[in-house]
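Re: that chain you flagged

S.,

Sorry for the slow reply, it's been a week of failed gels. I finally had a moment to sit down with the sequence you sent. For the record, here it is as I used it:
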Amino acid sequence: MFKREVKSISELLQQILRQEGFETPLLQKRLIEAWGTVAGKVVERYTTEKFIRNQTLYVKITNPALRQDLSMMRSQLVIRLNQQVGSQVITDVKVF
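Prediction finished late last night. Pasting the structure tokens below so you have them in one place:
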């Protein structure tokens, strides 16, 4: 009798995404989409651009006072965003 290794669909999907090189872009997209949830609705309203480059999330905020507050909360934002995604995707947040 053959002994088969049974895997769940989520394990198989994650393995395929990793093999094909799609895991990191997918996690980055999820992290960018989580910005409004983590930062809040008010911050999301003043956010115009979001992108990730070299494990750094760049966020453009139109309100100068809010921009200053967020730049002082950078380390907390990194932790909360990575927790929301469930993986270490970014190491820093730059607010401009």
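What I noticed first: The longest helix spans residues 9-20.

Talk soon,
D.
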